[in-house]
Amino acid sequence: MWTTDDVQGFLAAIKGDGFAALLLLELTTGNRRGQVCGLKWPSVDLEAGEITMHANRVVVGGHVRNESGGKTRIADQTTSVDRAFFGTDYHPGDYVFTYENGRPPHPDTIRQRFDRLAAINGLSRITFHDLRHSYATAALRAGVNPKVVGARIGHANVGFFLETYVHVLHKDDREAAEQAASFLLGPDLYPAADGVHETWPSQIPSQTK
């Protein structure tokens, strides 16, 4: 997974890329690749700042298959210039993330584009799916309720989600415990050497009855 520094550095480096917004959405929602590639304007409410993941572009045997649902249409003003330029050659798919002619990218193309952008910007190699894990991990470490994080990335089973990310919760719980103990007990009872805390029970004077 990427750290928050990795994510911020990556997004700053790809600002000029045609699919930077798609990658930004992925990194801030943790949705599946097919969901961000299949997002359509009827599922975007710009005023409310909300999206609803109805459509899904999945790859089966190398071919893209669209799985979609319906929703009330929202007027699209962002591609009017492109539509006028390409005329009848413009692809009328109503997708949010497209090439200039309105054609949606193949999900594998997005994966390959991400791999290339990460490599040329010196980021550690992770898969596109790992962006989903990076988001979930960052959200948990930011203090978001695990149930909420699980629901946001589409895990209906909270127990499975917690099993998947228990290492994150355990690590942060241990760090929180050490920070609290250090603050509460003070340096005499909870000294730190080179940033590593000794086990505090051995520091506490024994009680004589």
Describe this structure in words.
The strands form three sheets. This protein has a two-stranded antiparallel sheet. A two-stranded antiparallel sheet has the order 3-4. A hairpin with a 4-residue loop joins strand 1 and strand 2 (50-51). The longest helix is centred in the last third of the chain and has 24 residues, at 166-189. The protein has two domains: 4-125, Intergrase catalytic core (hpI Integrase, Chain A, Orthogonal Bundle), CATH 1.10.443.10; 166-203, no CATH class. By secondary structure, the protein is mostly helical. It has helices spanning 4-13, 20-29, 33-37, 80-86, 107-120, 128-141, 146-152, 158-164, 166-189, and strands at residues 44-45, 50-51, 56-60, 63-67, 192-193, 196-197. Mean pLDDT is 75; it is low at 69-82 and 196-206. It is built from nine helices and six strands. The relative contact order is 0.12. Helix 2 crosses helix 6.
Summarize this, please?
The chain has 209 residues and is mainly alpha-helical.
The general outline is elongated
Total strand segments? 6
Distance between the termini: 52 Å
Task: Please report the first level of CATH classification, the CATH class of the largest domain.
Answer: Mainly Alpha
- Stretches where pLDDT is under 50 for at least 5 consecutive residues are 69-82, 196-206
Count of alpha and pi helical runs: 9
> What is the helical fraction, as a range of percent?
40-55%
CATH topology of the largest domain: hpI Integrase, Chain A
Q: Number of domains in the coordinates?
A: 2
- Any idea what the CATH superfamily of the largest domain is called? Intergrase catalytic core
Provide the gyration radius in Å. 23 Å
CATH architecture of the largest domain: Orthogonal Bundle
Strand order, biggest sheet? Answer: 1-2
> Based on helices, strands and strand pairing, what is the structural class?
mainly alpha
The percent range for strand residues is 5-15%
The SSE string, one letter per element, is HHHEEEEHHHHHHEE
Mean pLDDT: 75
Biggest beta sheet attributes: 2 strands, antiparallel
